[in-house]
Design brief:
The chain has 11 helices and 17 strands. It has helices at 40-48, 66-72, 90-104, 122-138, 185-194, 208-218, 220-228, 238-248, 254-259, 280-286, 347-357, and strands at 5-10, 57-62, 81-84, 109-114, 118-119, 142-147, 158-167, 170-180, 197-207, 265-270, 274-275, 295-298, 302-304, 310-313, 320-322, 327-332, 335-340. Strands 6-9-7-8-10 form a 5-stranded mixed barrel. Helix 3 crosses helix 6 (208-218), helix 3 crosses helix 7 (220-228) and helix 6 packs across helix 7. It starts with a strand and ends in a 6-residue tail after the last helix. The mean pLDDT is 92.
């Protein structure tokens, strides 16, 4: 393995759309959503452990989840868990990791990825990642991974690319023309039909000098805040310095703050069996179905005239469904959710209503 390769896993999200399994004290990334026996963050860590040494993997999470990360990833030392006192989106999270890694290896090549994505074709994914990392190590490029779209999904961002190879040494890399956030259906359909667009997987690869230069150019105020307290990193006063930075810095995504503005952005396209598993319905699409089109995690239900459902209940439950079609049926720790798959966007409202009427302990 290349000792100059590092990985930053972003694990600070709340995951409201996976309620009632995902709750504020144990969000989606720490849950075995797929029924494999491992949580999403554990699967992510194992995947990247095949790319770089485990001691080069950092997890950035909310301070409230420090113990969960340590519990689920005992391979990590305490200084590999970076704790954010407040949620400020992905740009501050990445800036924090940049300055932390610079202490160890100023010439590092860094991969930044979410903790809660699924990759079914791991070998293909790792090959593309190594290709992107090799290119990023040799060039001052900001590289991202793009997924070949299979249908006009309106929940993903899109990347338009120039089909010409960016470099003879790296024919898989293409120059990025444009980022577009979550288009309407007709626009998404035209993107897919054109063959010039990819889904944005939110996975980034760059050399540390390249990304820190980008912050200085496009997000100088965030870079200056971290630079001012950089000497406190890896000291007993690190948390104090990070607190001061996060109180002052604005909330902004790396996509909006850097990637959409920079002119040195490249993409590697692939079909990795990727999903961001962003909702119960996306999990339904990912899971295998039985003859009635039901997708099941946990207890196998007895079904009568029921089809197209996602059922996720504890393995020791007996579930009987009659006349239920295209629904989400999820039970966890005393909370049962039954709703139409087409209405899953209302789950956020359900969570707010339950918190108000039944108590915060249920959300």
């Amino acid at each position: 393995m290349n000792s100059d390769y590092y990985v930053v896993i972003m694990a600070g999200g709340v995951g409201v759309r996976f309620w009632p399994v995902s709750k504020s004290d144990r969000p989606k990334q720490f849950i075995d959503i797929l029924g494999t026996g491992k949580s999403l963050i554990q699967q992510t860590f194992e995947r990247f452990s095949k790319f770089c040494p485990a001691e080069n993997i950092y997890v950035v999470t909310n301070l409230a989840y420090r113990d969960l990360v340590a519990e689920q990833l005992p391979q990590l030392k305490s200084d590999q868990i970076l704790c954010e006192p407040y949620r400020k989106n992905t740009a501050p999270c990445i800036a924090y990791a940049n300055y932390k890694i610079r202490k160890r290896n100023p010439a590092a090549t860094v991969v930044v990825a979410p903790s809660d994505h699924v990759v079914l074709k791991e070998a293909v994914f790792l090959a593309a990642l190594r290709e992107a990392a090799a290119a990023a190590a040799r060039n001052p490029w900001l590289v991202t991974l793009g997924i070949k779209p299979s249908y006009p999904n309106t929940g993903y961002g899109y990347i338009q690319f120039d089909d010409r190879a960016a470099d003879a040494a790296h024919p898989q890399l293409k120059k990025v023309k444009l980022f577009t956030e979550k288009p309407e259906y007709e626009m998404a359909r035209s993107f897919v039909e054109s063959g010039e667009f990819l889904w944005n997987a939110g996975i980034f690869i760059w050399s540390l000098p390249a990304v820190m230069a980008a912050f200085k150019t496009y997000l100088p105020e965030i870079d200056e805040l971290f630079a001012a307290y950089a000497d406190l990193l890896d000291t007993p006063r690190e948390a104090e310095g990070v607190e001061k930075v996060y109180v002052s810095c604005r909330s902004i995504s790396i996509d909006y703050g850097v990637m959409e503005k920079a002119d040195n952005v490249y993409v590697v396209a692939g079909d990795f069996g990727w999903s961001d598993v962003g909702s119960w319905n996306s999990l339904y699409e990912l899971l295998p179905k039985n003859a009635e089109g039901n997708a099941v995690v946990g207890a196998e239900p007895m079904t009568y005239e029921s089809k197209g459902n996602l059922v996720r209940v504890p393995a020791d439950k007996i579930v009987v469904l009659q006349g239920l079609e295209d629904c989400i049926v999820v039970e966890d720790n005393g909370v049962l959710l039954v709703c139409k798959r087409t209405e899953e966007q209302r789950i956020r409202q359900f969570v707010e209503d339950v918190a108000r009427e039944k108590g915060e302990r249920y959300v």
